[in-house]
Amino acid sequence: MIGVFDSGLGGLTVVKKIFEYLPDYQVVYFGDTARTPYGGRGTETIKKYALEDLNILLKIGVKLVVVACNTVSAVAFDELIKKSPVPILEVVTPAVERAIKATKNKKIGILGTRATVNSGIYQRLIAEHDKSIKVFAQSAPLLVPFIEEGQLKSVELKRIIRKYLWSLKQQQIDTLILGCTHYPFVRNIIKLKIGKHVNIIDPSTEIVLKLKKMIEEDPGLAGKLTKGQNHKLYVSDISGNFGNLSKEWLKINLPIEEIKVNS
Amino acid sequence: MIGVFDSGLGGLTVVKKIFEYLPDYQVVYFGDTARTPYGGRGTETIKKYALEDLNILLKIGVKLVVVACNTVSAVAFDELIKKSPVPILEVVTPAVERAIKATKNKKIGILGTRATVNSGIYQRLIAEHDKSIKVFAQSAPLLVPFIEEGQLKSVELKRIIRKYLWSLKQQQIDTLILGCTHYPFVRNIIKLKIGKHVNIIDPSTEIVLKLKKMIEEDPGLAGKLTKGQNHKLYVSDISGNFGNLSKEWLKINLPIEEIKVNS
Prior knowledge:
Two copies of one chain form a homodimer.
Chain A (H helix, E strand, L loop, with lengths): L1 E5 L5 H10 L5 E5 L11 H18 L3 E4 L2 H6 L1 H7 L4 E2 L2 H11 L4 E6 L1 H6 L1 H9 L4 E6 L3 H6 L6 H16 L4 E5 L7 H8 L4 E3 L1 H15 L1 H6 L7 E4 L6 H9 L5 E3 L5
Parallel strand pairs in A: 1-2, 1-3, 2-9, 3-4, 5-6, 5-7, 7-8, 9-10
């Protein structure tokens, strides 16, 4: 089984891409809907929650973990990799690599949660590759609440997105990293507001392409991952919009079970 | 010490009223900022969090607890009252009593979180008093995220409030209960959008008036509550806007300490 986790329903964008690029493999998802959103919380809180999320997936028996949360990837991945007995992938690096290839004018924008932006991880990774690239990061704290509420078409959301993108647009970026796996849910609005000429980098696509390569190159790992269509979604709080949104987004009706977070 | 708790910073509206009506008493506040917001979560999750919040205040040594959270009052108060060794007050009943006295046309509106509205507690309590009163409840799931983000003056917030109040306005309510202790932070916008002729019932004021009466009528209880100005604020996650907003709202700079929720 491939295990995917996120602070809420954002990681479903990664699950969707796994179904697209690796359709044979069985996927288990855990969304920490009882404690979403993570992006405005402190580093220690995020680390604690992330370790619990990892342990939930390990108990279910996954043989590979995809951290489908930029906030966790940005501030807690070092801890996770130390504790995980199975291979584990984060979502930031593949997006950065793609953005560096995509930019022509060497101006990359990042839209992310406050924790992700403040961590400086995108800025750091891009600078490690190419110091001449200018990076403009903008935090977008209200996008996750809107998306978790399923308010994907509201006028207010459109206005807020325009506001968040304003300074990035002024800087004339030609490449924008969606630095949160929730954001592909509103990709069309983002595309409209930032302009059609800007490359949109979706971390869900990039991490799944990396995963595909990893599986193809490592038959040992591939052998450990169960194949089949018995996918299952777990959440820490089953109320709310998760059921509806997951069905709408994945276009299939997967079983959902509540699993309590216990610390 | 009087202990006050809330899912986040909303309960500061209650603290402010305690400072106004009971200025001699020492107050301790706990805001569960690591797990805010509660209002969209399931009943079992809210009960679990509420019991932990209560225990945090009891460990600090409070002799009376004010549940400054409508969501908790609506869905978890029965549990809390069973478990609490000290007197404990909820925020729903005093607001209901005031609203019943205030309405002339017997049409009361409730604005609350999804959990509060779905619990039906306001509707039930009002019907117990007077079956001829019509109650119109509207959930407002995005207000708490906006307020916790400190975005109190954004145009989008104003538009969202107008949208949430639309159906209540159509029903020609003459009294509106702010069914969440966060909402007094945006009372002026609510007043503007619903119309000046509508009575706004602020649960923070009502619960503190009830508390004042209780203390005045019970010298034994009053004797147990420490007097003094050594107020203190605790939060489960110290990052974010809590520091700034608490200073701005309470007009004093109180010490803030992080206290981990360990469930």
